[in-house]
Amino acid sequence: MSALPTPAPPVTPETAPFWRAAAGGELTLPRCTRCARFVWYPREFCPHCGGGEVSWQPVSGRGQIYSVTVVRRAPHPAYADAVPYCVAVVELDEGVRLLTNIVSSELDAPAIGQPVEAIFDPVDDERAIVRFRPVPIGREGAS
C-alpha cells in the first residue's frame, strides 16, 4: 500500500468489473470480442473497430513508464501531505496506456521506459486504486 490518498472512485456499470477485480488484487481490462484489442477507458463498444461487445480479461499488470512527472505542489488539500509524488502514464504490456501514480521511495528514479508492475491500494471491499511500482532489477521478465 502506498502513502498516497485513496479517494473513492465513482463506480458505473461500465467500470464496476475493473474496480471489483482491483479490490481482489487483479488488473482486468475490457477486450473487444471482434478485433481482440484491449479497450481503455471502459465502455460498451470498441473504439478501434466499432464492435458492440467487450468482455473483461485479466492482464499482466506489467508495463513501462510512457511519461512521468513529479508533483511537488498539491493540487487538492487531500494530497497536501503526500507531495512530492509521481504521476505517470504507464503503457501496459498489452498495449493500453493508463494514467496512474508511480509509487517509489526514490522520486527522481522513475524514468521513461522503466519497467513497472501494478499494486493495489484498497479503498473499501469493492474498490482499490491501481498504482504502479518500479520492477526490481533482475525481475523485469518475471511473471
Description:
- A 5-stranded antiparallel sheet has the order 5-4-3-6-7. The protein has a two-stranded antiparallel sheet with strand order 1-2.
- It has one helix at 16-23, and strands spanning 28-32, 54-58, 62-71, 85-92, 97-102, 115-124, 127-134.
- It is mainly beta and 143 residues long.
- A hairpin with a 4-residue loop joins β4 (85-92) and β5 (97-102).
- The mean pLDDT is 90.
- It has one domain (16-134): Beta Barrel (OB fold (Dihydrolipoamide Acetyltransferase, E2P)), CATH 2.40.50.
Task: Tally the structural domains.
Answer: 1
Structural class: mainly beta
Number of strands: 7
Annotated CATH architecture: Beta Barrel
Relative strand content: 35-45%
Keywords:
mainly beta, two-stranded antiparallel ribbon, OB fold (Dihydrolipoamide Acetyltransferase, E2P), 1 helix, single chain, 6% helix, 7 strands, 143 residues
Summarize the structure.
With 143 residues, the protein is mostly beta strands.
Secondary structure blueprint with pairings:
Elements: H1 16-23, E1 28-32, E2 54-58, E3 62-71, E4 85-92, E5 97-102, E6 115-124, E7 127-134
Antiparallel strand pairs: 1-2, 3-4, 3-6, 4-5, 6-7
